[in-house]
Amino acid sequence: MTKTLLLDCGSGGRASQRLINELFLSHFDNPVLRTLDDAAKLDIKGPIAMGTDGYTVAPPFFPGGNIGTLAIHGTVNDVSMLGARPRYLTCSFILEEGLDLELLERIVASMGEAARNAGVLIVSGDTKVVPRGMCDKLFITTAGVGEILVDPAPSGSSARPGDAILVSGAVGDHGLAVLGQRDSLSFLQGVESDSAALNRMVERLVLEVGDIHVLRDPTRGGLATTLNEIAGQSGVVCMLEEEHIPLHDAVRSGCDVLGLDPLYLANEGKLLCFLPEEKAEAALAVMRSDPHGGEAARIGTVYAPEAPSRPGQVILKTPIGGKRLLSMLEGDQLPRIC
Amino acid sequence: MTKTLLLDCGSGGRASQRLINELFLSHFDNPVLRTLDDAAKLDIKGPIAMGTDGYTVAPPFFPGGNIGTLAIHGTVNDVSMLGARPRYLTCSFILEEGLDLELLERIVASMGEAARNAGVLIVSGDTKVVPRGMCDKLFITTAGVGEILVDPAPSGSSARPGDAILVSGAVGDHGLAVLGQRDSLSFLQGVESDSAALNRMVERLVLEVGDIHVLRDPTRGGLATTLNEIAGQSGVVCMLEEEHIPLHDAVRSGCDVLGLDPLYLANEGKLLCFLPEEKAEAALAVMRSDPHGGEAARIGTVYAPEAPSRPGQVILKTPIGGKRLLSMLEGDQLPRIC
Q1: Taking CB atoms and an 8 Å limit, are B51 and A124 in contact across chains?
Q2: Looking at this predicted complex, what is its ipTM?
C-alpha cells in the first residue's frame, strides 16, 4: 500500500479492491460483509428502525474520538432512540485524493473497534475518491438498522404533561472539545468529547424500566434545540431547572471565556429521556449503573401549555427563581462539529 | 428561502428546520418521514437486503439524469441485486456553503419523483453544510433496505459452469455521458446516461423466471470489471462473445475517438444476470418487455476453469475467432463518474 490515497483507489478496479481487502475487510471483518455482494443479507426481525447520518467533523481527530468513532456511535444512537437494538451498519466513505493512508487506517481500525464494542456489524459499504481539493480529507456516512424492542416505540411526539425529563449526563463536552482542537485553544485541554454508544443503556431503559415516552440524543444544536424539537412535536411545554443540568467545570468555564451557551453545544454520548414521574428514579438508577450514565440527572418536567406559555416552548428556571425562554437558535457559529 | 445555501442551514437550528420543511419534506413527503424522529420505523419483513452508495458525480447534472436521481436509482439497484424488493431509503446530504438553492431544489424534486417511480419511500435523512471550498457543490449518500424475495438469494459467488450470461441492454452510456458533459465534448451530444431503477425487472426475473444465480449491476469499472468480480467470487471462467454485447453506435464511435473501452465504462441502468442455459430465453423475454430492457442480450457462457484458463478469468471471443483476456483494470481515468 502506498502512503497516500490515489484517485485509482475509487475506480472500482484492482486498486479499489486492494483498498477494500487490505483496509476495510481486515478491520470490519464479519461473515455478512465478506460476501462482497452489492447489498448485504441481514438476519433481522421487524419492526425495524432505520437511520442515517453524515459526518464531516473537522479536524478528523479530537480529544475523545475521531470522525470514524463518531460515525459509528452517532448512527448506533440514532437507531437506539426508537427503542431499538441496533444490529447492522453500512459505511460510505468519500475520500480526498492524497489522504494520508496511515490516518485513514487509524480511523478505520477505531471504527471496527467501536462497532464491536457496540455489538453491531458493518455489513456493506462504498468508497469514492475525489480529486484533491474537492473534499476536505474525508467524509463518512453511516446508516443503521435495528430491531424495535417495544410497542409503542419512543417518539419525539409522545411527551405528555407530567413526564419527568432526564438527561444521561453532563452536556456540551463534544462541541467544546472539537472547537478546542480545531482552534488550538489550550485552556480547553481538559475537555473531551463524550462520544459513546448508548444502545445498551437504551435497551435496559425500555425493557427494564419501560413506558419510555421519548428518547433522543441532543447532538447538533445541543440540549436546548433538541428539547425545542420535542416540545414542538408533542405540543407541550418543557420546564427545566438550570441548577440540575449536569455540566463539567471545564465546560462551564470554557463557555464563559468563549461566550458560548453549553445548552446549545453538541453532545455525542448523551440522551434525553421523558417518562412518567413515578418511573424517573428507576430510570436514573439504570442510567447511573451504565458506564456512560454516571452523571445522569432529572432536569425538568413536562407541562400542558397554559397562557402565557405556548405549545413548543422550553423554559429555564434559574436558581434565583427567574425564568427565561430557551428558544431554538436561528443558526450557530460552530460548523463541522459532527 | 434565500438564493444560496448558508452555513446555518446545517446547524440543527431554525435555519436547518426550514430547509428540511420547505425542501426535503415537501418533495419526499410520506407518513414515515413526517414523524421526524432520529430514526424511522419500517413496516418490513425479513430476510432483508441492505446496501449503500455515496454519489460524488461531477457535474451534478448530465444528459439523462443528475446526482440525485443517480443516488436513488443506484441504491434501489444495489438492493435489488440480492433478489429483493427495495422498500425504504435514507438520504444523507453533504452540501457546500453557497450552493445554488434552485439547483438543490431541482435535484431534490427529481429524487422525490425517482423514488415514487421506483415505489420506494425516503424515510430518514441528514443534512450537513460545510464551509465554501470544503466540498464540491454536493455529495449524496443513500442507503436502502428491501425484502429478499427468493431463497437462495442471487449472489456473485453463485455462478455455475453452464450458466448463460445475460445483460439487460447496451453498455457504456452512463460513463460516456458524464464525461461528455464534464469536458463539453460536442461529439458526444447524442449519448445519454442509462440511469434507471431496475427493481421491477428484477422482481419479475426472480419470481417469474426463477433460479437466478447472479444479479449485479455493472457500475464503476463497467461490464468487464463486474464480470471479473463475479468470476473471481465464483471461481469460474466467463466466456463472452464480443459481437453479442449490445453497444450504441454513438458510444462505439465516441469511445473510438477518445481511446476508451466501453466495456470498462460505468452503467447505471443495466444488470448482468447469470442463470441456467434453459432459462435464458424466458429471462430475455422478461427483460425485453421491461422499459429498461429492450436491448437485452445473451453475451456469454460460464465455464469451469480448465488449463490454460484460470478461475476468475473473463475471456472475450472476437468476431473473427480470436480470444483476449478482459482483465480487471488497475485503476481508471474517469473519476467522479457516479
Answers
A1: yes
A2: 0.95
